[in-house]
Amino acid sequence: MKKSELRKQVLQKMKNMNNLNKEKADQWLKEELLNTEAFKNAKTVGLVLSMDHEVNTFPIIKAIIDQGKLPFVPATDYQTKRMTFQRLDDLTQLSTDEKGIQYVDADTERTNSLDLLIVPGVVFNNDGYRIGYGGGYFDKFLNRHRTETISLVYDVQIDNSFKPEAHDEVVERLIIAQTC
Fold first, then answer.
1. Whether the Cβ atoms of residue 112 and residue 104 lie closer than 8 Å to each other
2. Is this model's pTM higher than 0.90 or not?
3. Strands 70-77 vs 82-87: parallel, antiparallel or unpaired
4. Which string of b and e fits 10-34 if b means at least 16 CB within 10 Å?
5. C-beta separation of 137 from 74 below 8 A
6. How deeply is 87 buried, as exposed, middle or buried, from its count of CB atoms within 10 A (0-12, 13-18, 19+)?
7. What are the tens digits of pLDDT across the range 124-145?
8. CA–CA distance, 109 with 87 (Å, rounded to integer)
9. pLDDT 10s digits, 68-88
10. CA-wise closest residue to 151 among 118, 114, 116
11. How far is it, in rounded angstroms, from Cα 169 to Cα 77?
12. Which residues pair with 103 in a beta bridge?
């Protein structure tokens, strides 16, 4: 199966998840993340502002802030297909771009140097390779900027049938939640 077909199939599974099961999985993933040494040792944490079908990152962002750490979210340049990370001080700084993706709409610090990056994706294999949304932003970022990586994954996102490509970057650790 082509990556685009597999992406579409898994996205549909994510969107069709039972809300209660998703909420339980999101809570479990958050707790597992907060208990990792990587998270405990990190001062700066990069992560996305989640969409409804993705692992809910907003409680994680709150925990990052509550623990005195600094959350950084993607600042994407769609023309150059490059991404950096911008500090999020509070959730009132958010706006939505032309693709429906939230971003920080404030003049805050930008950096490519993070202690920990929570890497999103649609499909993952057990080796830590992933299929994202097709823009290559995270693979390009990880190719240029080395940082510790973790992905928070639902079991419906695991599929070992795809073969990684030369430009694909591996995620060091997957935390996988059961959803049923």
1. no
2. yes
3. antiparallel
4. bbebbeebeeeebeebbeebbeebe
5. yes
6. middle
7. 999 999 999 988 899 999 999 9
8. 5
9. 999 999 999 888 888 999 999
10. 118
11. 20
12. 95
